[in-house]
Amino acid sequence: MADLTTRLVNVIGDKSFKPLEKAFDMRVVGDLLRHYPRRYAEIGTPTDLSDLRVGQHVTILAEVVSAKVTKFGPGGKRSRTEVIVTDGKDHLSLTFFQQPWLPKTMTPGTTGLFSGEVTSFNGRLQLTHPDHDLLDGEGDMAKSRLARGVIPLYRATAKISTWNIENCVGMCLDTLDPIDDPLPEPVRQRLGHADIRAAFESIHRPHSIAEAMNARDRFRFEEAFVVQTVFAQRRLMAENERAKARPFTSAGLRDRFENQLPFELTAGQREVINEISGDLDQAHPMHRLLQGEVGSGKTVVALLAMLQVIDSGGQAALLAPTEVLASQHFRAISLMLGDLAKGGMLGGADGATRVRLLTGSMGAKARNESLLDAASGEAGIVIGTHALIQDHVQFAELGLLVVDEQHRFGVEQRSALVDRAEVTPHVLVMTATPIPRTIAMTVFGDLEISTLRELPAGRQPIQTTVVPAERQSWLDRAWERVREEVGRGRQAYVVVSRIGEETADASKETRSLLELVEELSAGPLRGLRVGSLHGRMASDDKEAAMNAFSTGGLDVLVATTVVEVGVDVPNATVMVIMDAERFGMSQLHQLRGRVGRGSEGGLCLLVTTSEDGSPSRERLDAVASTSDGFELSRLDVELRREGDVLGARQSGMRSSLRLLSVVRDGDIIDAAREAAGVVVADDPSLAAHPALAAAVQELEHSEQADYLERT
Ligand code: ADP
Ligand code: MG
Fold it and tell me: Among 36, 20, 445, which Cα is nearest to 220's?
């Protein structure tokens, strides 16, 4: 007898095991049982043959019309068998070589599964040398499925067919001991879900499609439930964790800063800062995600939170994903604080604090100063990149950690800083990529969420236009617009895409950027001061280029996506994005958020070679159609696949979600979150729920493995 952790090879034998291990990384019985059928065929309902497309790998259910053998070759030793099958309307030809015996079993009227790649021959579709499995009632599996009338169809490979898998699954089900269910019985009962043993039976050997769908719903819920249990545990742990309360005190730095702000906070900003302030006032750590449209003013909100912490005797760290962004934050925050950031310096205000920068490429002297000020507590705010997370960085009293652009940091990196502090700091995570609620719940389910929806008043919208590259007059007009803006004393970005995907050849990217700079300087932008910024530059040079641009020493900055996040030059009013189809929608949205940050409206030109009506053009049109990041992320999710939505970072999570769609299954995720909350509140360590505890551990383990792979 077997349970879910029994080695699969022991049940199904080496011959079937090898290809399953190779293709799907299966090891134990549970791996195979969770390889759910992709779809089902109903005996008596043949596959619609008019839907077939050349190049598809298909498994069809069809009836044999005729089978004919042709001999050829020397002495007629070679043979070709042509079998015609039908779905009742259309016909399809199947060609087999060297199997002259086939007509014996493939008699007219026989039904079978045929699996192979659709090809075209003389203008007609056919399957060449398909795998086949006749429903002739021989063998136990065949008898059982004939009796049930439903055939499961699995994701298969050339080495192992769907009916081989069906057979292996059958062997596992037949030897399966009773199993512990990760879904607690009360939860199952309330939602009307079958227990796991019965559900495995129903999803693999259903008597009707409806039965299979019910089982599928149950497993879909189970996936959501395990994820939400992890989050419920993390939230509960956070509640029990002790932190130092950092209540708001009047007449401190926060108050003084607010009073000297050159603008009114928006209602949204006020609301969010109140939420954060309330969290900081608690004796357990805040875990909050602040999401807001690009330019919605998250930095100011974060700064107010940092000042509140400083006012109550703590320090704040701001973690940025890139050096450019860290320096940018450093400059912007120092500038905004003015005299309030000149603690112990000439011209510093009474009770002023200090802001320090810490990045990997800083000189030893500046670095030591920062380290000293962090350790002594002189620096109320320390801003940095990954360098901040390293072991030797000590804080006198870290009270708040702000993480900018969360999706680039792992949960574990966050905790690296948090775990080291003697008293757990509060954590605020900021992201400018609006996340649909269901995804936020699945990916950031352990965080409370605050949202900034409005942009500061008076902010001009960004106008976005798609510029087809082949329309020379449009392209000319685009560069003319850049010249006009520069003529009015404004500045422009030109953004160059990565070449290809992850495998981006950085030197190629750099080359194409430098070529473009040359081309533009000699041609359409002649006479303008054009500079460049890319990832391969030494960080001093990067810094210099960024500085030159932000102080007006350059008219045009040609850059790679290093400008994507958070770069803030209010005088820049136009952005030209080259090969725009190579960027994701949210990335384009991020990028264009770099212009129109001042009182002037912004203009974003998406230059593309993608054809009108093509999918990539559709995405660009969508970006041009709305400046609302939330609306855009909804459109984006509709146009993308699940895996891309969760992002490469969540691949551990992703592989555990076989049926659940974080895009479509919002209701299920809601229900699971609620149910998991109840179970965890009752039994925080899941002592009474061993199967659930095991599933939770497995998920956390795969997330962990993910993280280790990344570092
Ligand atoms: P985000 O980080 O959300 O993209 P920032 O915090 O960088 O946005 O803010 C963008 C710009 O808007 C900054 O120059 C900032 O000073 C300014 N700003 C922030 N809040 C307001 C407000 N309430 N009114 C006017 N300008 C604001
Ligand atoms: Mg920002």
Answer: 36
The pLDDT, as a whole number, for residue 9 is 96
For residues 165 and 156, the answer to whether their CB atoms sit within 8 Å is yes
Structure tokens at 523: 């041609």
Q: How many CB atoms lie within 10 A of CB 186?
A: 12
CB contact at 8 A, 683 and 693: no
- Selected residue with higher pLDDT from 210 and 452: 210
* Partners of 354 in the β-ladder: 342, 379
Position in ligand 1 atom list of the atom nearest CA 297: 6
- The confidence score (pLDDT) of residue 512 equals 79
> How far is the centre of ligand 2, averaged over its atoms, from the C-alpha of 354 (Å)?
20
pLDDT score of 526 more than 70: yes
**Rama region for 544: left / alpha / beta (φ>0; ψ in -120 to 50; rest):** alpha
Q: Is the CB of 202 under 6 A from ligand 1?
A: no
Which residues are close to ligand 2, an ion, with C-beta < 5 A? 299, 566
Q: Write out the DSSP string of 518-577.
A: HHHHHTTTTTS-EEEE-TTS-HHHHHHHHHHHHTTS-SEEEE-GGGTTT---TTEEEEEE
Which ligand is the nearest neighbour of the Cα of 595? 1
Q: How far is the CA of 425 from the centre of ligand 1 (A)?
A: 26
Summarised one tens digit per residue, pLDDT across range 583-632 is 888 788 888 888 877 767 789 999 999 888 788 888 899 899 988 777 77
Of 378, 355, 387, 374, whose CA–CA distance to 421 is shortest?
Answer: 374
Please report the atom of ligand 1 found closest to the CA of residue 336: 16
pLDDT at 344: 79
Q: What is the CATH number of domain 44-134?
A: 2.40.50.140
What pLDDT, on the 0 to 100 scale, is given for residue 305?
Answer: 98
CATH dotted code for 462-640? 3.40.50.300
What's the whole-number mean pLDDT along residues 282-306? 89
List alpha helices for 241-297, DSSP H.
Answer: 253-260, 267-280
Nearest residue (CA) to ligand 1, atom 10: 295
Per residue, what are the HEC states of 313-356? CCEEEEECCCHHHHHHHHHHHHHHHHHHHECCCCCCCCCCCEEE
* pLDDT at 704 (0 to 100): 58
Q: Check: CATH 3.40.50.300 for 253-452?
A: yes
Residue 459 Cα, ligand 1 centroid: separation in angstroms? 10
Tokens 């007219």 belong to 108
- Range name among 26-35, 431-440, 620-629 with the lowest pLDDT average: 431-440
Q: What percent of the chain has pLDDT over 90?
A: 53
And the tokens for 405?
């652009």
Q: What is the largest CA-CA distance in the chain?
A: 105
Q: Are 579 and 587 in contact (CB under 8 A)?
A: no
Task: Give the 3-state secondary structure of residue 448.
Answer: strand
Q: Domain extents for the chain?
A: 44-134, 253-452, 462-640
598 C-alpha vs ligand 2 centroid, how far in Å?
14
Q: What letter would DSSP give residue 102?
A: H
Taking the alpha carbons of 187, 193, 198, 203 in that order, is the dihedral positive or negative?
negative
Q: Is the full-model pTM beyond 0.85?
A: no
Tokens encoding 140: 């136990």
Ligand 1 centroid – CA 331 distance (Å):
14
Q: Tell me, yes or no, if the two domains 253-452 and 462-640 fold the same way.
A: yes
Spatial CA neighbour of 480 closest among 488, 147, 243: 488
